[in-house]
Amino acid sequence: MPQIDACFDEHYAVALADAQSRILFLQAQGRLFEAVSSVNFAPGGDWSEATCGTNAIGTALAQKKPITIFDAEHFCESWQPYSCAGVPIRHPLSGQMIGALDLTTFTEKFPDNALPLTMMLSKTIETELYYRVRLEQAQLEQCFTAFHHDIKKDTLLAIDRDGRVVRHNRDPEKWTFSWKSSFDWETYFIELETYNAEVITQPLPFFAKRPIGNVRLIRQEQHLIGVLVQIPCERKDSRKFYTGVQPPSNSDTVGRDPRWIHLVNRVERAAQQDVPILLLGESGTGKEVLARRIHQHSARKEGPFLPVNCAALHHSLAASEWFGYGEGTFTGGLKQGKPGWFENADGGTLFLDEIGELPLPVQAMLLRTLQEHQVTRIGEAKPRDVQVRVIAATNKDLREAVRKKEFRSDLYFRLNTITFTIPPLRERPDDIPLLAEHLMRQVEIRQRMDIVHTLSPEAIKDLKRYPWPGNVRELKNALEHALVFADGPVIRPEHLPNSVRETEGMITTDREIPVPPSTDEKEYLKQLLASTEYNLSKTARILGIARGTLYKRLKKYGLR
């Protein structure tokens, strides 16, 4: 923090804490840094009065005013060699205390103007915070202005991170819904930050009756600053409201699993480079979802996105489908001819799903087009230039297919400039409840259901234990089944398909590793890892445990 650098030298420690007295930031140097760090005066340290007794941070927040604490006035004996000044920091608009600033030094170094200096610095922080909040609100207002022209009967609200309604297009007295008396906006926005979609459709938890609405996430330099909330005011408008507004595929990228978030972030980064991408993953893991996300984050997003199922392509029709045909080429064909897939995807993205199923002769056709960026329609002599980005996907081991000469090595190396492996759903058990909620919202909207359903704890437990061989696709089918047979707003285990409720084949995240009798667990794991060539997914499947459990055991025995 430049203000702190300008005011203090190595004789002072300056700390910034949140409203719960937990240190967020510490600036200190040399001997003083070593001394204060040894008593947990460091980021993450809890300095509330309940934990540490009298101290500048906790006492300033408890008494809601600036305070000076000298040496022996500290409750903790280890803190008595120091003197401190503490000043609460308040939100510039609401006036609520959001943290505290602390100045600490050895008592003999404590200056007479320590408290006024700390108060001045806290005011500087509050002023900068004020301008930041106003800037964010101005951006929210601009977004509101850009969207409200298209909204007629619906209610549109611009809400900042603190839950303040910055703008609205309808008199609150005419709203058909009411706010909850208390709502945790901080937790709500933390949850929203896990979403990878620009717009999500959900029951709005901050209203008493939880009406379903659209929530558009407004970001400033990747930081979520607020939302635009659109709510249909009349039931008759619901068909118009939901058609084309929610992105049906992006919600499938929701997840909190660190590996999943890392994957999505890398996918978005790779999307900005116009190179081929290969997506690997089991059936139903969302390969097309990620392919669409790549397209949406690329320079070709205004162009077409054309998905092609290579497994359904008949060899005899391959040439006409890939390249099209000219005028009068086929009896019974279109008189004016027909463009092929490459021409239809020109300027955009061609998604080749199940690329591993392509026959070898068709692979040769594809390779030549990728090399030359030209296609020649059947029945024509003049080639046509095409600029297409290719994203390929498969659930097969293409390296093994190349080794068996079932897949061309030159095509493989052209397609896999960047490769992403999508984890199966069973390796993301903590993402299942969140993903299930989103999938249920999709079904409820599509089926025009009046009830917003939730999952019981028992149902969530069953969903997390089931191994999901069909991944997200199977989860969605299971939830559709449950919504059909649910007799109320709560989904219970008996509403789920029998296959999900059966205990056979289920996994848990904390079960013991099944070690043969008279065998050391560590040695057994080493032998098993060697036999699978350290393929952790395969090892976990053999053991019948979640991958997370395997990670913990490997870390325990130092095998990672």
Automatic annotation (TrEMBL):
CDD domains: AAA (cd00009). InterPro entries: AAA+_ATPase, AAA_lid_NorR, GAF, GAF-like_dom_sf, Homeodomain-like_sf, HTH_Fis, P-loop_NTPase, Sigma_54_int. PROSITE patterns: SIGMA54_INTERACT_1 (PS00675), SIGMA54_INTERACT_2 (PS00676), SIGMA54_INTERACT_3 (PS00688), SIGMA54_INTERACT_4 (PS50045). Keywords: ATP-binding, DNA-binding, Nucleotide-binding, Transcription, Transcription regulation. GO terms for biological process: regulation of DNA-templated transcription. The keyword Cytoplasm does not apply. Coiled coil: none annotated. It comes from the Bacteria. SUPFAM superfamilies: Homeodomain-like, P-loop containing nucleoside triphosphate hydrolases. This is Transcriptional regulator containing PAS, AAA-type ATPase, and DNA-binding Fis domains. It comes from Melghirimyces thermohalophilus.
